[in-house]
């Protein structure tokens, strides 16, 4: 279930006003074996800890775990639950800094995203570079699954 984005910045100043604001959390999203297997098929990463439930049951994790990159790849869609950038003519995912896979994500977990705009830097007339700290949480797990800095470029 996707909710309407809570924030809709339409100007550089709107983005600057959001620096330091906690966004979220999003709705919970289930990560089941079918989603893990589909990601393995998409990426070609079929390591047994992700796709072999019988073998993974005997691992220290006790089950399969999602790929770390699965959690990272979900963050753009999660961020859309929290913020819409449709007020800008152009928006571009420019990359990530400081990506950390802090805790394994067991199959059948529920995850969500909390975000915080950490900086907005003007790069030209009506153009900005936005850094957002992304934290993926899993229900019942004290540590974050993932923490990363997302870098976006936006222009009017």
Automatic annotation (TrEMBL):
SUPFAM superfamilies: Thioesterase/thiol ester dehydrase-isomerase. Residues 19-136 form the MaoC-like domain. Gene3D superfamilies: Hotdog Thioesterase. InterPro entries: HotDog_dom_sf (IPR029069), MaoC-like_dom (IPR002539), NodN-like (IPR039375). Belongs to the enoyl-CoA hydratase/isomerase family. This is MaoC family dehydratase. The lineage of its organism: Bacteria, Bacillati, Actinomycetota, Actinomycetes, Micrococcales.
């Amino acid at each position: 279930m996707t909710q309407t984005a809570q924030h809709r910045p339409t100007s550089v100043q709107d983005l600057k006003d959001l620096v330091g604001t906690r966004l979220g959390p999003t709705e919970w999203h289930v990560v089941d074996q079918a989603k893990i297997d589909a990601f393995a098929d998409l990426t070609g990463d079929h390591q047994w800890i992700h796709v072999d439930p019988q073998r993974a049951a005997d691992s220290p994790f006790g089950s399969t775990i999602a790929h770390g990159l699965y959690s990272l790849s979900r963050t753009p869609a999660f961020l859309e639950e929290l913020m819409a950038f449709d007020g800008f003519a152009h928006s571009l995912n420019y990359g990530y800094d400081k990506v950390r896979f802090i805790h394994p994500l067991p199959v059948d977990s529920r995850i969500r995203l909390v975000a915080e705009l950490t900086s907005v830097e003007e790069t030209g007339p009506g153009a900005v570079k936005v850094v957002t700290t992304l934290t993926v949480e899993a229900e019942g797990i004290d540590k974050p699954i993932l923490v990363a800095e997302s870098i976006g470029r936006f222009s009017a």
